[in-house]
Write a structure and sequence with these properties.
Layout (H helix, E strand, L loop, with lengths): L1 E4 H4 L3 H9 L4 E5 L2 E6 L33 H4 L1
Parallel strand pairs: 1-2
Antiparallel strand pairs: 2-3
């Protein structure tokens, strides 16, 4: 874990963000108290969903868009 005062970190923010994305824990302090922790939004090892990966898993019935019998009173 890397700990830096906010004033020192301001000049190295780009490098600190890169380190956080790579998995390093970065804590910024103010008045010798932990104030902020830099963490990546998406973890580096997280797999992103692939387009079309659910193909063949979802089935729709042939009469999906057919009128429902419950509405017969309203359609006549």
């Amino acid at each position: 874990m890397k700990t830096l005062p906010v004033k020192k970190a301001s000049g190295h923010l780009d490098a600190l963000v890169d380190a956080a994305i790579a998995g390093e824990e970065i804590v910024l302090t103010r008045d010798d108290q932990a104030a902020v922790k830099l963490v990546p939004v998406i973890s580096p090892g997280a797999a992103r969903p692939q387009f079309g990966s659910a193909r063949g898993l979802i089935k729709m019935s042939d009469d999906f868009d057919a009128p429902l019998d419950d509405f017969d009173d309203y359609t006549q």
